[in-house]
Recover the amino acids of this structure.
């Protein structure tokens, strides 16, 4: 089982809580996914007490909560949001997002490192949503991050692993750093691919919440994560260009 | 005095952040606060003065990805 900041987690799947068609569907999706970590956010409310039912539902799930700084575009915004989230949710875990590009929601590398440096110094357990960039990864680790969350593809696209080369390089460069593929996964096969590459877990939301049957899709992803991880641990064969007979030639009947 | 709460202008007579939350009917909620973009812990609200033009953010748990 993976270990994040000294905390072993029972599932390699993290699930977001946004965009579900109903609270009951959200709850059912979590139950069938087996996810041990739920991402949440802090937001203004239109009316007093509006968020209470949601918070009660999440607490009843019995999962670890990881607030995010989604929507923040500067380090300062992200740091203030993280501080509010720590008080509100009673956890020092934070999924750090500092968005640098409006269309792709690509992280701002400089803002990300700046915010991570401040938050790690304040005792936060930072899970930075980052690109697969090796240099940025090194800077985040220098800042005190002990986990990285590289994107598979831009948030909400469902494209899967857009840059497998970059992700493989990242995985190989920092073999001992727990890494979670966050964002962009659309199909269970994407999750299996990420796990086969040796990533420790995945975090997804839209692919489940927007499926025709979110609880079934949650279970499908959970199965894919297990299959992919087992495949990684089992050690896959290397592909080759030329055919190689799988049945022994020795002893073949001479029929012509 | 006039302040801004979650982006909306509000008229309050409160002198501290804690009093402002009470005046806004938010003191019983599970919320976190920021004053002029700086986090203010719950324990510090009563000792945090507010001034005309201040910007208060009040946030609560919500769905997220």
């Amino acid at each position: 089982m993976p270990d994040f900041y000294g905390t072993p987690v029972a599932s390699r799947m993290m699930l977001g809580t946004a965009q579900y068609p109903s609270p009951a569907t959200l709850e059912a999706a979590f139950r069938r996914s087996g996810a041990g970590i739920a991402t949440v956010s802090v937001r203004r409310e239109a009316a007093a007490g509006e968020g209470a039912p949601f918070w009660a539902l999440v607490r009843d799930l019995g999962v670890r909560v990881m607030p995010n700084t989604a929507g923040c575009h500067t380090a300062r915004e992200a740091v203030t949001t993280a501080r509010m989230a720590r008080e509100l949710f009673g956890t020092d875990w934070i999924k750090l997002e500092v968005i640098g590009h409006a269309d792709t929601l690509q992280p701002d590398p400089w803002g990300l490192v700046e915010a991570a440096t401040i938050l790690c110094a304040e005792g936060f357990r930072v899970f930075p949503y980052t690109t697969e960039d090796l240099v940025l990864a090194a800077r985040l680790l220098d800042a005190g991050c002990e986990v990285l969350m590289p994107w598979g593809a831009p948030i909400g696209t469902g494209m899967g692993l857009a840059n497998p080369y970059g992700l493989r390089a990242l995985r190989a460069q920092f073999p001992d750093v727990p890494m979670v593929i966050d964002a962009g996964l659309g199909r269970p096969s994407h999750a299996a691919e990420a796990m086969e590459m040796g990533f420790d877990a995945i975090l997804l939301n839209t692919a489940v919440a927007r499926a025709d049957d979110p609880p079934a899709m949650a279970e499908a992803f959970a199965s894919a994560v297990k299959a992919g991880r087992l495949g990684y641990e089992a050690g896959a064969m290397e592909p080759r260009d030329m055919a190689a007979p799988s049945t022994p030639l020795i002893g073949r009947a001479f029929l012509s | 005095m006039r302040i801004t709460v979650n982006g909306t202008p509000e008229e309050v007579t409160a002198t501290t952040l804690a009093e402002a939350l009470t005046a806004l009917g938010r003191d019983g909620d599970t919320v976190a606060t920021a004053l002029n973009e700086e986090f203010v812990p719950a324990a510090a609200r009563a000792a945090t003065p507010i001034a005309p033009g201040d910007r208060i953010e009040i946030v609560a748990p919500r769905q997220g990805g």
